[in-house]
Structures are given as structure tokens and as C-alpha cells.
Amino acid sequence: PAFSCRWYGSAMQRQDFVLEEQRANHAAELFPLLAEPALHEFTDSEAPPSEAWLPARFRRLESRRSPDATQLWLNWVIRLSDGNAAGYVQATIGAGHSAEIAFVLGAPYWGRGLAGRATAMMMDRLVRDHAVTRFTATADTRNARSVKLLERLGFTRIGTGDDPNAAFERQARG
């Protein structure tokens, strides 16, 4: 089924940060954070190839849906109260009220609980406004910070095995 986004466009706000709709104009300020090699150590992604490449990527995501309209692609920049962008959170909502979530936080902001608070805020909104009932995420098990963050959010690992790329899931709390 095709999806529509009922609330996208409104910022989500806390005292210490705001989640604002990601746009192409965020690329210049996010590029230095996303270009850091440490950010990609445990992911299958690479640093953006150039600062000029990133706005085009963000512009493609501004459609907020997959080309076949079967998924919502929702992305928010984490804007701190001091005005700096710290990273982003994202969700892909598919059929069956399930959302694959992810978080990307620049290295200078690690260890502050910011990614957990921003991800929890996004997940609450997805439950409330999109009736999401199940969340999934993927993390490299060697990335202790990400695994601990998912566990703090109530995710559990699905299956076992030697592959360091592990799937995690959590049922939504009503």
C-alpha cells in the first residue's frame, strides 16, 4: 500500500535539542560530521565522497517515500539547543506497521545520551502518529556503543551467529 505522512514537517522538541526535518540545506553542516572515518568503522556505509554529493543525496530523501510508494523514508536532523547539528535519526516504515530505525551521531557528541533520547523521541512519535507496532535495527556487535543504546531502548538481538551485523527488534509500547 502507498503511505502518506501525517505529521512530517513539524519539529519535535525537547529542552536540549530539536528534531527537524532533514533537508538538502543541512548537508553543509552535517558533512564534517559524516566525513569522520570513526563514524563508519562499524557500518557498511562510507563517508560522503564530497561535500557537493551530500545535498543531492538529501534532496532525493526529501520525497519521504520509496519510488514505489510502499515505504515512508523519514529523516530528522538532531539540532542542539546551542544551534549545532549533531547528527540524525531515521525511520523506514513499511508494511505491517513495522519501522526500521537508525541513528547517526557525530563523534564529538558521543557518550552524552543524545542518540538514545533522540531515537526514543522519534519512536514515540512513530507509534503515536503512524501506528508502528514493531521496531527493527541493525548494528555491528563490535560497536558496543550502538548495541548498548539499542538495549537501553528495549531492543533484543534476533538470532545468533558469527556475523557481526546483527538484527535487533522491539515491540512498541502503547
Topology:
Blueprint lengths: L11 E2 L3 E5 L5 H8 L18 H9 L10 E9 L4 E10 L3 E8 L8 H17 L3 E7 L3 H9 L3 E3 L6 E7 L3
Parallel strand pairs: 5-6
Antiparallel strand pairs: 1-2, 2-3, 3-4, 4-5, 6-8, 7-8
Structural overview:
There is one protein chain. The chain is 25% helix and 29% strand. It has 174 residues and is α+β, with helices and mostly antiparallel strands. An 8-stranded mixed sheet has the order 1-2-3-4-5-6-8-7, with helices on both faces. A hairpin with a 6-residue loop joins β7 (156-158) and β8. It is globular and about 40 Å long. The two termini are 24 Å apart.
Query: Can you count the helices?
Result: 4
Radius of gyration, in Å, reads 16 Å
Summarize the biggest pleated sheet: 8 strands, mixed
Approximately how much helix is present in the residues?
A: 10-25%
- Gross morphology: globular
Q: Tell me the series of helices and strands, N- to C-terminal.
A: EEHHEEEHEHEE
Strand order, main sheet: write it out. 1-2-3-4-5-6-8-7
Please, what is the oligomeric state? single chain
The overall pLDDT, averaged over residues, is 88
Question: What features would you highlight for this structure?
Answer:
174 residues, disordered N terminus, 4 helices, eight-stranded mixed beta sheet, alpha+beta
